[in-house]
Amino acid sequence: MVRRSGGRIHRQSRQVAGEGHPAGGSRRGAAEVPSGSLAAGGRAAHRPRQAARGEARHAQGRRHHHEHPDRGGDHDFPRPRSDQVTGAATGHQGSAFTQPRWGLIRRVALFALIAGLSATVISQILPRVYRAAVKILPSDTPVGLGLGDLLATSDLSALLGARGSGQNPALTYPEIIMSRPVLERTLDLMAPASPKHASRSVLAAIGIKGKMPADRYDRGVRKLRKLITVRPNPRSGIIDISVDTNDPELSAFVANGLVDNLNQFNLDVRESRSRAVRTFVEGRLHETAQTLAASEEALTQFRRSNMRVGNAPQLILEQERLQREVEAQSELYRLLQKQFEQARIEEQRDTPSFTVIEAAVPPMRRYKPSTILNAAGAAAAAAFLAVVMSLIEPKGTRLSSG
């Protein structure tokens, strides 16, 4: 009879037959040993050896794990069943522990791929926008010289107490460009014909339709303001004017038209201000001339009446007063006459108030939508969403889904 105990085969003692022994009965009785006693003795003798072998295998596995940490110790000795689920019995990470991590990676990659492809397709479907830009450098002269600005450039300001307005063109020009007069003039411009469109006004080119002219211009001004971007550079003083439309030719035409209308607006305002200043100075010049003539006549009459002043104090003081009045009116008349000539010159001046550094040209590439930026942004947002979804899922769901 054969029994297995502790992984080893133990054989029981066979009962000795009586054929080879003369006293078969007595020897058979003496040789008969209970089978249970033999099995118990074999297991007891095998336990110390089995424990020693198990400790040796565990020690060898630990040495192998320290020497080869990347390999682990899975092939050196059998792992308990609980380690195959959680990896807690031996400290090694089992396959079930890494499955949720790989599931999260697959989910993030899938979400990012779908979102990126969707954004790419949508970017190709959306209307294309082309941006044309023009750069100008304002002159040091303020826009539309007023009375104080003109008088501040001459010695007359010392007499009249006039001071300049101190305008900053880098801050003034953006407001003028976005003003209604400049935008309405731009809307009236006729865009040149192109292979796609015939000659038409800017108002019609940007898609403004209607029967009421006032309503059309009102909607056209609002829409044109949305298409225009003005960015002044405080350090260099350069102003960047850009226009975004669906047609590259139209974008360049509107940008250059804005600059032309800005220059014309400045010339008109300058002419109007200069005319007003010239009229004012001309009136003051006539008044000063009359006052000067009266002062000179008074001094002449005093000298005729008092040809021999002598040492009379009162007569001397009166003569000096009349003399100072004539000198003051003469100086004022001289300065007003100089300012009058300057105002006349300013009224006729038609030089631009700024310099065009870079004119607008039709762009070759679209400004937006940007396919790369949209795809990257959508993929990043989708990946973040996938991570958030995995964090808020129940723990059991994450393990089962992985």
UniProtKB/TrEMBL annotation:
<protein>
    <submittedName>
        <fullName>Uncharacterized protein</fullName>
    </submittedName>
</protein>
<feature type="transmembrane region" description="Helical">
    <location>
        <begin position="108"/>
        <end position="126"/>
    </location>
</feature>
<feature type="compositionally biased region" description="Basic and acidic residues">
    <location>
        <begin position="67"/>
        <end position="82"/>
    </location>
</feature>
<keyword id="KW-0175">Coiled coil</keyword>
<dbReference type="InterPro" id="IPR050445">
    <property type="entry name" value="Bact_polysacc_biosynth/exp"/>
</dbReference>
<feature type="coiled-coil region">
    <location>
        <begin position="319"/>
        <end position="346"/>
    </location>
</feature>
<keyword id="KW-1133">Transmembrane helix</keyword>
<feature type="transmembrane region" description="Helical">
    <location>
        <begin position="372"/>
        <end position="392"/>
    </location>
</feature>
<keyword id="KW-0812">Transmembrane</keyword>
<feature type="compositionally biased region" description="Polar residues">
    <location>
        <begin position="83"/>
        <end position="96"/>
    </location>
</feature>
<feature type="region of interest" description="Disordered">
    <location>
        <begin position="1"/>
        <end position="96"/>
    </location>
</feature>
<keyword id="KW-0472">Membrane</keyword>
<feature type="compositionally biased region" description="Basic residues">
    <location>
        <begin position="1"/>
        <end position="13"/>
    </location>
</feature>
